[in-house]
Amino acid sequence: MNIKEVARLAKVSTATVSRTINGSDKVTAKTAERVRRAIETLKFYPNTNARALGSGRSSLYGLIISDITNPFFPELVKSFEDIAVQFGQEVLIANTNYDPHRMEVCVSRMLQRKVDGVAIMTSEMDERLIDELNSRSIRMVFLDTGKPQKGISNIAIDYASGIDAAVEHLSALGHTSIGFICGPMQLTSARTRRRAFIQSLKRKGLLLDNQLIEEGNHRMDGGHEAMLRLLGKNPRPTAVLTSNDMMAIGAIGALGEHGLKVPRDISIIGFDDIELGAFTQPALTTVRLSRPEIAKVAFRALYDAKDDATAMGAEFTIQPTLIERKSTGPAPKHRA
């Protein structure tokens, strides 16, 4: 079975079949549906390697993430793949585990598979690897760590507004001693969130106590250990904001082990709004970072520029929002 048979059954040209398979917007919806029905009827499977050789495009997009065990990333992968499928494209997923060597292996896989673009939803990438992708005219989009230039776009997260909303929420509940569990300081995003927290306290006129800032590892065990260290402070905080939800869940576990109740004794706020957070006990108040929105912006930044990989990239901004649940409450001294 070949493309000519599909064209004959759908009563279109082979070029129209090819455009439909490649997700071209030059084919009307009615014609594209007829072609898809013919493909399904004939059980035709396009040779993607041959198609890449003929067109110079693979219809394959790379997605590099940091940690597949963190629910934030599988949710992002699902959203990215959902929109890619809508456009008739495929996704090659790679996980770095925050390891620079793994990052190099991931980029190598992207080059071997001749991807049309790469969404780098992870920590910093070595300039040498960026230059390697750029030299092959492979479009890139970064999450918070890129600088818009030829062939490169960046999605900036407005951490300041998200953390401001969290601090304002705690302040309104009477909390004046607020702790923070940040991510690993070698990551730009972790440093950015830590800086946003400090600046937010200053704007609200709240006391900054550097002893109440602890470093975690973006995983539950890191949040657990950081919370134990905060419990050893004198005085300990009445509320803790964490750099992501996984550490918030770990922190809640540490409090439970010491007979402390959330939010009666200490309020907890996470960041990301992973699905699991709505089902913790108590349900986690958090700052939502929309994965569908990030995925849509990332994919379109690559796909819309597929015909000109050297065009000037753009800067996109994602606004986080506070989601109030049950893990925050009045500060102990304000409780009736």
From TrEMBL:
Indicate the segments forming the HTH lacI-type domain, all copies.
1-55
**Tagged with keyword Metal-binding:** no
Q: Which InterPro entries match?
A: HTH_LacI, LacI/GalR-like_sensor, Lambda_DNA-bd_dom_sf, Peripla_BP_I
Q: Which organism is it from?
A: Silvibacterium bohemicum
Name the PROSITE patterns for this protein.
HTH_LACI_2
Q: What is the designated name of this protein?
A: LacI family transcriptional regulator
Q: Which domain of life is it from?
A: Bacteria
Looking up SUPFAM superfamilies in the UniProt record yields: lambda repressor-like DNA-binding domains (SSF47413), Periplasmic binding protein-like I (SSF53822)
Task: Look up keyword Magnesium and say if it applies.
Answer: no
Q: What Pfam families does this protein's entry cite? A: LacI, Peripla_BP_3
Which keywords does this Swiss-Prot/TrEMBL entry list?
DNA-binding, Transcription, Transcription regulation
